[in-house]
Amino acid sequence: MLKSAALIAAATPAIATAQDCSGGNISPAFPVRKRLDQGPFDIEQDEGWRTALFTSPSEKPLRNPGLGLVGYTWEENGPGLAVRSGKRKLEDEIEQLASLPFVDVLYIRCDWRNVQSRPGRLDLDPVWPLTLDAAKRHGLRVAFRIQLSNPEFQPQQISLPEFLRSRVPLVSIGHLAKRENREFVEPRYDHPGFRSAFTELNQLLAAEFDGNRLIEWMDIMQYGFWGEGHTSNLPSPFPDYATAERTFIEMTTEQIDAWKKTPLAVNTQPDISHVGNRRIIDLAMRGGAWLRSDSIIIEEPIQIDQIANRPPWLAAILEDGYFRQYDIAKLKVDSAGVNEMENYLLHNLDLRSNYWSLWTESDNLRTYNQRYPRGFQGLQTNLGYRLRPAWVWQRKRYGTSELIVGVANRGVAGVPGILWLTIENQQTGLKMNGALDPGQPHGGGTRECAFVLPKGFAGVLRLSAQLELRPGVMKPIAWACEQPLNSDGSINVEVRHNDDPNWRKGV
Fold first, then answer.
1. Which of the ends of the chain has fewer CB neighbours closer than 10 A, N or C?
2. Does residue 446 share a domain with residue 309?
């Protein structure tokens, strides 16, 4: 019995270490500048106060950065079924997808050969300009992943551009019975020819897209099938684990270093192929990368735990690669009357997700939403963060007025970055701003902050919010409240003179 107890005790630290990957020891990737006073604002400080504004939450969809539903213009098999079958042109399918009222982000997942055909420059497949143009016209954003390996077209075609195939060794890693017993190959990622070409690819992509206002995020280019960090149950092409881990730590570091303005996302695949995924995920999270998973129901417990308990300032991107056609003729409905796809997608709220991927089939998506509207509506009103100034108080302090703003978050996720608040009055030129702590307010929470106004100020202030996704990269957001907003998404707050006899009236 004592021996068994000793064995259990010895195992306990290993279990605790495994749980550390949930991000509890991860610090924000960049510091807060101009941190606002966030209280507590105790009543003992009170010298007279009034409620200047209070708002009610809106359930209308918002196209703010850092959240949304994601339509795919290209996936690992190429464009949607309507295009592959010749029923619709690519440009028409992209337009159909971008026109869906519930789509917020357009996504491209393509092979390396779809973005480069010669050294020294990008040669983007037509899906790129078509997607970027549609996003610009419809007020959407764009995200993408470049796959360094893709099993869908092997053995006839591999992901590498033609000019690399004679320079980089390809290693047979075996056959998969579940894929017609086809033989699969992987490049030697550690080979000098691959590494130099990869460095160039990363630098070319960053030069073209880093900081582009249309680009929402880029998936980190990872090992193996679909760039997800695995090769199913087949071995990796590396001679040993140390070489694999070192190679992908270096490749991940290159990407973190090159992308300064656009968020990156890292796949949370467990290290079943022994290429260093645990180290890579930890490195990426410390660099500010968001988390993503390519399934939500048929998924390992560790990924669910990691995403559900991630640091609140990191966004989460979810999809499901198994069940993605939204074909209502094939949908199963359970004993509660809930269709299978709705059950899948509503699990996003359990994980405090920011994004849900819709895949490629625009016709099916439209029909599904008409038949089962609850699913997408549930995501649109809860996914990510939904902020409003729930309370704004004016207090008499320091011989002037102090404005205290209580920002409430009705969404399930924390703020993906740092929230900045700005108050301004155009007539007087008054403008003040400052930031909350990273991730605040958390999902379902409220965070207060204060501005001390210049002496004697009275008038209407515009209260607006911006999201700092990367250091110095600010994007405006609209408040999620039912009360009227200004054209820039801000809301008006009336500040009264301290000696106004009607100071507290009309609240």
1. N
2. no
Question: What is the b/e burial string over 378-414, where b = at least 16 CB atoms within 10 angstroms of the residue's CB?
Answer: ebbbbbbbbbbbbbbbbbbbeeebbbbbbbbbbbbbb
* Sequence-separated (6 or more) residues with CB below 8 Å from residue 474: 420, 466, 467, 468
DSSP character for 66?
T
Q: Is residue 15 part of a domain?
A: no
AA identity, residue 506? G
Q: Is residue 22 part of a domain?
A: no
Domain limit, last residue, from 364, 382, 400? 382
Together in a domain, 373 and 435: no
Judge if 53 and 93 occupy the same domain: no
List, run by run, the mean pLDDT of 10-residue segments along the chain (507 residues). Answer: 42 37 78 95 78 96 96 95 95 98 98 97 98 98 98 92 95 92 95 98 98 97 97 96 98 98 97 96 97 90 94 96 87 90 94 96 96 95 97 92 96 98 95 98 98 94 97 96 95 91 67
> Is it true that the peptide bond before 61 is cis, omega within 30 degrees of 0?
no
Residues 259 and 399 in one domain: no
| Burial category of 44 from C-beta neighbours within 10 Å (exposed 0-12, middle 13-18, buried 19 and up) | exposed
Which amino acid appears at position 397 of this protein?
R
Which DSSP string corresponds to 177-199?
GGGTTEEEEEE-TTSHHHHHHHH
CA distance 394 to 406: 12
Q: Looking at residue 300, what is its pLDDT?
A: 83
DSSP 178: G
- CATH number, domain with residue 364: 3.20.20.80
Contact 306, 292 (CB under 8 A): no
Containing H/E element for 430? strand 430-435
Q: List 107's β-bridge partners, or say none.
A: 72, 143
| One domain for residues 306 and 329 | yes
Instruction: Work out the burial of residue 364: count CB atoms within 10 Å of its CB; fewer than 13 is exposed, 13-18 middle, 19 or more buried.
Output: buried
* Domain annotation covers residue 126: yes
pLDDT of 322: 80
Q: Report the DSSP beta bridge partners of residue 142.
A: 106, 215
CA–CA dist 150, 164 (Å, integer)? 15
Domain that holds residue 447: 29-58+385-495
Number of domains in the chain: 2
| Domain closes at, from 382, 414, 433 | 382
What is the rounded radius of gyration, in angstroms, for the C-alpha atoms of the chain? 25
Q: Is 95 found in the same domain as 232?
A: yes
